[in-house]
Structure formats: C-alpha cells, structure tokens
C-alpha cells in the first residue's frame, strides 16, 4: 500500500473545503502539458478546481484550470504540483507528497 488511507482521506476533505487553490506546475508537468497543447505553451501557475482520489494507482489528483482561455482540461497528481509555503494546507500537502514519493521509489526498486 502506497498511501495511508486515513491521511489521504483527511487531506482530500480539507482540500475540497479550500477550493479553488493556487498551485505551480513542476517543470516536467509543464513540459508534458506544453507538448499536448495546441498553443505549445502552458502557464506555470494554475488553479485547482476539483480534487479526487484514485487509490494507490494515482493518489490524490487535481483538475487544473489555467488563467488563459483554454478548452482543454488537465488532470494531474498532486505530487506534480508545488504550493506556496504560506498556504494553510501547505505542510499537510508536502507531507503527503513526501510520503507518496518515498513509497513509490521504494516500490520501484
């Protein structure tokens, strides 16, 4: 098991209550979305407007809305996003991300 189910459920509930949330894309995600996009440019900053849980396969996932007008929806794992450290949930999100990434690395080796 990758995620702690109780921790993920509690965080998911808090995230839903705090929507929309600002976030920054990690460079790898921005590059991937840029290749997929018709305009070939993806802003680094987005707003999370929906969150869900996909189990151990994907963990907590987020719907990303960008400031530019786009019809494409982007869904990404919360582990591919960065948050302002001053944000209320930043520590809990960082703890979830760290735990998940550590478990994924351990599982792949």
In short:
The chain has 3 helices and 5 strands, in the order H-E-H-E-E-E-E-H. By secondary structure, it is an alpha+beta fold.
Task: Describe the structure in your own words.
There is one protein chain. With 109 residues, this protein is of the alpha+beta class. It has one domain (5-103). The protein contains 3 helices and 5 strands. It has helices at 5-18, 27-36, 90-108; strands at 21-25, 45-53, 60-66, 74-77, 81-82. The chain has a 5-stranded antiparallel β-sheet with strand order 4-3-2-1-5. Strand 3 (60-66) and strand 4 form a beta hairpin. The longest helix has 19 residues, at 90-108. It is globular and about 40 Å long. The chain starts with a helix and ends with a helix. 19% of the residues are buried. The model has no long low-confidence stretch (mean pLDDT 89).
């Amino acid at each position: 098991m990758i995620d702690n189910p109780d921790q993920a459920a509690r965080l998911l509930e808090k995230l839903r209550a705090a929507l929309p949330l600002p976030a920054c894309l990690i460079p790898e995600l921005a590059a991937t979305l840029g290749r997929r996009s018709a305009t070939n440019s993806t802003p680094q900053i987005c707003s999370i407007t929906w969150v869900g849980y996909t189990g151990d396969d994907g963990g907590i996932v987020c719907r990303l809305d960008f400031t530019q007008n786009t019809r494409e929806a982007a869904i990404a794992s919360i582990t591919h996003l960065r948050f302002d450290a001053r944000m209320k949930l930043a520590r809990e999100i960082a703890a979830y991300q760290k735990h998940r990434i550590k478990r994924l690395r351990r599982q792949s080796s």
